[in-house]
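Lecture 7 notes: from sequence to structure.
We start with the chain below.
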Amino acid sequence: MDTKCIDRIIRHGGAVKCLAYSSTGENIASGGDDQCVKTWNAKTGAPDSTLDHSSSVLSLCYSIDDTRLWAGLANYKAYAWSDVSLVNRTDFASAAEFSDDCREVVWSPGGKDAQLCNADSGSPKWMLRGHAEDIERVSFSPVHNIIATASRDGTVKLWDSQTGECLVNLEGHTGGAAYIMFSPNGKQIAT
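Predicted structure tokens for the same chain:
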């Protein structure tokens, strides 16, 4: 692994809160307290576009086919961009992730619950309820029909994406669970 710094990009007017790589690795999106999303060429660091918003950008995710970029904002709104054109604005929250087939998106609607929805229409499939405090992150397993939600209540819950049923409640954090990620084979989860 090459560990030298390729470039130092300082183009945000505030703290950077989130980053997302496109699935091809050709582009990077960044968002933060300056209320904008910036996209970059990952190899050269050259800026591609700036997408202005009305609130701090807390999370970003590219669709698997790289046709859309979702931005989750601090004011509990989610925006979908395609070729720098706004294609959808929804009153959802900041934690969002696409399924591997790009057909579904899971996000937290600003509190203790998460929703699994159709990625194109935004129509809900399941409401995932059961956390005692706000959800910080959501994640799809890469190989199974499982969704994970991490909460400030210190728990991580695993859900069946086909039924909306809570499969497991993982406890043991001494504080809130702020981040989750599945291993590439989907057999482990880091929190």
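Points to note: The CA atoms of residues 154 and 175 lie 5 Å apart. The first strand starts at residue 16 and ends at 21.
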